[in-house]
Write a structure and sequence with these properties.
By secondary structure, this protein is α/β, with parallel strands linked by helices. The chain has helices at 5-31, 34-61, 82-95, 105-109, 120-138, 153-162, 175-181, 186-190, 227-242; strands at residues 70-75, 100-104, 143-147, 166-172, 218-221.
Length: 244
């Protein structure tokens, strides 16, 4: 939960009052004079206020330790490992005190995008909605990782133009390896002949196109490297991009 401005001001005010009362009590115990106690307490508060203002101005000019928001748009076929990687990196970054949000394409399909199907137009609209969420979070200093198939170059390019503070990450995996990982048998069903009652239509990479990214900022080949190495590569890109 996030403190409201009223709560923050109340906490700061109560802390100041408590400090003033404690200091006044100590000063009175030492001097036995209400006049001297008042002078000491007031001078102390004014000095601390001046030091605080100077301290904040100095730190505001120091860039070390500052981070900015970032939008990571992943792209990759079903089963490539996008969500697993996004959530693992997100957990690591949160441990470092960085605000992170993972946009899971499957999760958003059942909420924000439940009215959309799997035509090209609907797929593009799905990604546009997810990327808008990511763009808003990114400009509010959140590292947002979009885990979605994101199959078309035109959509990816649009996101790059609309969100300058974004990176394109291609999660690459060989088709044969994807078939092995597919516990639901979706690839097998997508390859069935037309007319078969079990066939899955409009399946990305089989019966619906998947455009190989022309110029991604990072390629992670999950069929050739361990999850640990993949996490390190993505985390390194993010930290470099946000100045962490």
């Amino acid at each position: 939960m996030i403190d409201s401005s009223k709560r923050s001001w109340s906490k700061a005010g109560s802390w100041k009052v408590l400090g003033f009362l404690v200091l006044s009590s100590l000063a009175y115990a030492a001097t036995g004079s209400l006049k001297q106690t008042s002078v000491v307490a007031i001078v102390y508060q004014l000095v601390m206020l001046a030091l605080f203002v100077i301290h904040e101005k100095v730190w505001n000019k120091i860039q070390w330790g500052k981070t900015s928001g970032l939008f990571i748009q992943m792209t990759g076929m079903s089963g490539a490992g996008k969500t697993t990687l996004a959530k693992s990196v997100g957990q690591n970054l949160q441990k470092q005190g960085i605000k992170v949000e993972v946009i899971d394409g499957d999760e958003y399909r059942t909420n924000l995008c439940q009215d959309l199907g799997f035509t090209r137009q609907d797929r593009e609209e799905n990604i546009r909605r997810l990327s808008f969420v990511g763009k808003v979070l990114g400009r509010n200093n959140v590292v947002c990782i979009m885990s979605a198939i994101n199959p078309y170059n035109t959509t990816r390019s649009h996101i790059k133009q609309a969100s300058p503070n974004s990176k394109l990450v291609y999660i690459k995996c060989d088709l044969e390896e994807l078939k092995k990982r597919d516990t639901k048998g979706l690839y097998e069903r997508a390859l069935l002949p037309d007319g078969d009652p079990n066939k899955v239509y409009n399946f990305t990479g089989i019966s619906d196109p998947f455009d190989v990214p022309a110029d991604p900022d990072l390629i992670i080949e999950t069929d050739k490297e361990s999850l640990t190495n993949s996490i390190i590569k993505l985390e390194k890109l993010i930290l470099k991009s946000i100045g962490g």
